Structure formats: C-alpha cells, structure tokens
Amino acid sequence: MSEFWERFAFYGIRWALVLYIVAQFHGGSPSGQAAANLTYGAYLALVYAGAIVGGYVADKGIGYQRAILVGAVFMAGGLFMIALPDPRMFKLGLATIVVGNGMFKPNISTIVGKLYAVSDERRDSGFTIFYMGINTGAFLAPLFTGWLANSVFGSDGMPAYKVVFISAGFGMLVSLLWFSMGRARLEGIGSPPPDAPGMQRVVYVVLGAVLVVPLVYLLLAVGGKNLQLVLTVMFLGLAVLLMREGIRDGRVARDKTIAMLIIFVVNIMFWMFFEQAGSSFTFLADNIVNRKIGSFTFPTAWFQSVNSGAIVGLAPVLAWIWVALARRNVNPSIPRKFGLGLLFNGAALLLLMYALSSLIDPADHKIPLWTLVAVYLIQSVGELCQSPIGLSMVTKLAPVRLVGLGMGGWFLSTGIGNNLSGIFASEVSGESGLTTASALGGYTFGFWALLLAGAALFLAAPQINKLLHGVK
Length: 472
Fold this sequence. Notes:
This protein is mostly helical. It has two domains: about 1-220, Growth Hormone, Chain: A; about 225-470, Growth Hormone, Chain: A. It contains 15 helices and four strands. A two-stranded parallel sheet has the order 1-4. Helix 9 runs parallel beside helix 12 (about 335-360). It is globular and about 65 Å long.
C-alpha cells in the first residue's frame, strides 16, 4: 500500500505535466509544446538516473527504511511545490521529486525482496502482490485526478491542474504515513547498517539531498540535447567499466557483458517511442482525438490508465502464452522477445499513421477515440514482451562483482530513452505545436525505425544467443 500511494502520486500527475506547462507558462500557445516535451523527457530521465544514487545511499548509508521515509518527504514537498504558479518553482519542485523518488523507488522494491529467503516459495507471490499495488495505483490515479481537474474543480476546457498536483502530494503523505505506521512489522528488515544506529547519517543524507536539488534543477533547465550529452557520456563510461570487468573475468563473462549492452541499446530505443504516452500522445489526445461519447467527454487523463489496466489484465495471458509455447519448444528466445517489444511498439505507431491519414473526420478534423486507446493497448503488449525480463537478465549477465553497476546501467538506459522521447516529441510538435501533419510525419519515422530495429534484432538473435552462453 505504501507503493500504491507512491505510484498514485507519480502517475496522478503524469498526464497533466505537459498540458500544465503549456497552459500556465506559455499562455496556452501551442508553441510551448516543444519546451514542455523537453522538460517532461528530462524529468523522467533524471527520475531513473536518480535511482542509482538512491540505492547506493541506502546500501552504504542509512538503510532502506530510512531512505524510503526521507524520499517520501522530498517527493511530497516537490509535489506541493509544482502547484505554485512560477516556472522556476515548478522546475525546483520537479527536481525535488526526482531526488525523493531516487531514494524511495529502488529501496522499497529491495525491501520486498528481503522479506523472503531466496528459496522461499512465497517470494514470487509476494512480488506479484507488490506488482499489483504498483499497477493499481497507476491505474486509479489518472482516473481520480482527471475527475478532480475536469469535473470537480475545473472543466474540460479549463482543467484545475494545481488540484492534480496537490492531491498527488496528499497521496504521497499517505504513503509516508502508511510506511511509518507499518515499519514495526518489518522486524528490522531494511534497518540502518550496524555502524549507523543513530540519526547523524540521516541528517547528512538530508543535507546532501538538499544540495543535490539545485544540480538536478540545472539539468532540468538545460534539458534536451544538453542533458542527452551528459547521459551519453555517463553511459559510455559505464559501458567501458563493465566491458573491462567482463574481459578480466574471461571469454564467457565478456560475451555476456556484450549481450547485456546490446539489451541496453534496445531498451533505449523502446522507451524513446513508448514514452510518447506522457508527451506527444497527450497533446494528440487533447487536440486531435475526438473524445466525445454522446454528451460525455472522455478526459485526457483517462488515457493514462489504459496502460496499467492492460498490464494487469494481459500479464497472466502473456505468461500463459510463453509457457504454452515452451511446451511446444517454440518459445521465442530472449533477443526475439525484445524484438517483439520493438515491433509491437512500431505496430502502435502504424495504427496512428493509418488513423491520421485515413480516419480523419472531415467535420472536426479529429481521429476516433478508439484508435488512441488501441495504441496504448498495443504498446502494453510490447512492454510485457520486454520490460519484465530486463531486470532479471541484468542480474544474470552482468560481471559478478559489478551487478549493482549493471543494474544502474539498465536504469540509465531507460532514462536515456525517456530523454530521447522528449526530444523526439519536441520535434514532432515543432514551433507551432502538434498538428495532424507533424504527428503523421513523426510517427511514420518512429514506425520505420522500430520496424527496422525489431527486424534486425530477430535476424541477429542466433548470434546474440551464442553470447548468452545458455542463460535463459
């Protein structure tokens, strides 16, 4: 439930960020869409990059429980800050959320793992309950915050975005309170290291986090291609360290490291186009999709719930399909499952290409509601082909002494993909905002890029499988 409320807060604001930036700081002008997309991409990228530091702070400094509590306080503070109508305060609030999320998100997942022995048969069931908490929070949050913004405190024409951020802040406070009240039941799991029983290190971490917030603010401010340069240098440095360790450990470890780096590159490309969900797809939903169902207007926020609902509904189906295929000895290899992830992502863009070229209503120049819903569903299938196995693969492929760094590489590759998603979305929107023509041109490029990459991965699968040396 602590994770439910944290995801409620995180996903509750996802749909509103780019729309709020344009409405509040660009006077509602479509010319502000490009800047909003860049900020959104940079924000997501830094959220994932922050997880690397947050895990280290918990491991070596204050323990998982205290890291979660500190992270929750920072996240709640940041959510309330972004409700203030000032562009500098908004980015400072986003930076505070980034720092808090970095301490909360990786460490609450780690605590779940520490509740069970490796051989405990309840371990998978425990993670399943945790996973359902994540997706239930992510599913309900846009429905609730969209209802507040469009029906209770505002209207579809003038949503009350600040109420979205404030409600998410209260959700984060509920998460903080829930975890605080439940800590005793953990019976010491995730407690501070033996050499740090007092609060001195917590104070140091809090002060350090406060000092890091302006740095994150600066990275958000430069955003886009400048941030991409920083992230690319970090990724190349990490790749060199991993390869050097892999080569030192022998041929098998070297090959596994190469395979892992290939997976990282595939992961970057997947998220670059998948995360249009919170940027260009949001502007598409708001301006180019006919959201009328009789007298009811389908809120833009509710599109964000389709992915989480699909994950909950389709995950058991995909799991059954993989098992059924394995019984017939035709279960796709790991590289080909990643390839399927790219191809489903591309199929979603293909549907948008068709809608934007052939399904435009001549009366209102908009595409049908069902097309964007179907796009989110198709993307969700792609996510299930790729995302669930990524973290597991890293733990099996990374050099033995650098598994933590390998996991950091996975998060960093996701962050790079998210930043590229913002850059791509800003190009699609252009100087005058998203139009039918610019969307069609951008998504056509995305479709061909994903199709070619997915096909190449299918063809290269036998060679990549050799690098895996039997890892499944």
